[in-house]
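hi! just following up on the protien thing from before. the input was this:
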Amino acid sequence: MADLFIINGGKKLSGEINLSGAKNAALKMIIAALLFEKKVVLKNIPRINDVNELISLIVSLGVKVKFLEKNTLVIDPIGLKKNQVDLLSASKIRVSFMLFAPLLYRFGECFIPNPGGCRIGARPIDRIVDGMRKLGIEIEYNSQTGYYRARMKKQPSGYYRFPKPTHTGTELLIMLSVFSKKNVILENSANEPEIDNLIDFLNQAGAKIKKINDRIEITGVKKLFLNSSFEIISDRNEAVTYACLVLSTKGNLKINKIAPNHIKTFIDKIKLVGANVIKANNSLIFQSTGFLKGVNIETSPHPGFMTDWQPNWAVLMTRATGRSVIVERVFENRFSYVEELNKLGAKIKYIDHKVNNPESYYFFNYKKGENYRQAIAIEGPVNLHNGVLNVADLRAGASLAMAALIARGESVVNGVSILERGYEDFVDKVKSLGGEIKKV
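and the predicted 3d structure came back as:
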C-alpha cells in the first residue's frame, strides 16, 4: 500500500469530533505501567503508530500486552526479562529513552540507545542525563555503539533543578524517584497537562507525589498497585488541529472530551482571530464569523502556545487577513512545512527575529554562531491551490493535510504514516466533517 493521502479540497467543513486519548500521555503511561507488580489496565489509549511501535518494543522485552477493546490496553509487566533495548526499535520512537526507569528498577543496569522520533531539532538529552546523575544514577554514552549504559547502585535521591523545562526529563525523573528511600525534589519542571495526568496515575497506584507549579516533591513508596483501570486525558493537539482546519474553511466545530484549560492559550488567540468559542459542559464549540484576522504567536512550554500547534496555526493564518508572525522558541527546526505550503500558493517567508538574550529566550540549547531561522511571516488571505506535498514530521504532516483540504482541487500528501504516528482515525474523522480524503 502506498503511503499517501489523495484529497479533493476546497469544501466547507463542519461537524462534531470525539477526541482520542493523548499521545503524549499514553506513551508515558505504558512505560510507567512497567513499574507495577501486577497487570495495569489503561483506557482511552489511541491506536496510533507510536503506540504500536512502543507496544512492539516492550513485547520484545518480554512484557505481555493486549487490547481488550479498541482503546483499552492491558499491560502485564511480570515477564520483563531483557535490560537492553533493540537499536532499530528505539530509533523509531523517542519515548524509548524513558525505559531507563523500569529497566533500572528491575535489573539495576540497562542499555538504551539514542532515542528516535521526529527530527525537529537537536532535542538534546543533556538535561535528562544530568538530572539522572544528580539523583545518583551512573550513566555513560558509548559513541561507537550508540548506547547509553546506566547503573543504579542505590535508589535515587536528592535535588535537581532543570536549567530549562523538559517534559520528557520531568516524567523520567518522576518515574525514577517513585521508589526512592529518601525524598526527591525537582524544580523548574515542565507543567504540561500530560505530566499532571501521569502524576495522577502514579498517585492512584500508591505513589506520593506533590506538585505545586514547577516544583515536584516525591516521597518514595515500596510498590505500585492499581485496583481499577485508569483513563488518560484527551489529546489537546488533536483538538487544535481540527479547530484550525474547520475554521480555515469557515465552518463550525464541536469538540467533545476536552478540558478548556488544556488549550486556554489557543482559545485566547482564536478569539483574537475573530472566531467564537463557546464552552458547553465537557465540550468546546468553535464558530466561524466569516472573517479571520492575522494574529502573531510565539511558542513556549505550557501554559504558553504549544510548539506542536504552530504548524496548524500557520495554515489558519494563510486564510486570515493581514500579516501574522510565528516565532518558534522551543525547537530549532520546526518549519519544514514552509516550503511545502508555498508550493500551494502560500506567502510565507523567513524573517529576522532579534532578541537580547537568545540563550535564555530559546528553550533549546542555543549556540552562538549558528544560523537559526526561528521566525516566519505569513501574508493573507490567499486561495491555496492543489499540489503534491511531502511530510517531514508529525505535526507538519497534519498541517499539510489541512492545507490540502483547504486548497481547491486534488492534492497528494506523501509520507502520511508519519502523521499517523499521532492521529487516530484521521481519515474517518475528516470524512465525518465533510472532507473528501482517502488513503491509498
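The chain has two domains: 4-19+234-439, 23-231.
The first strand starts at residue 4 and ends at 9.
cheers
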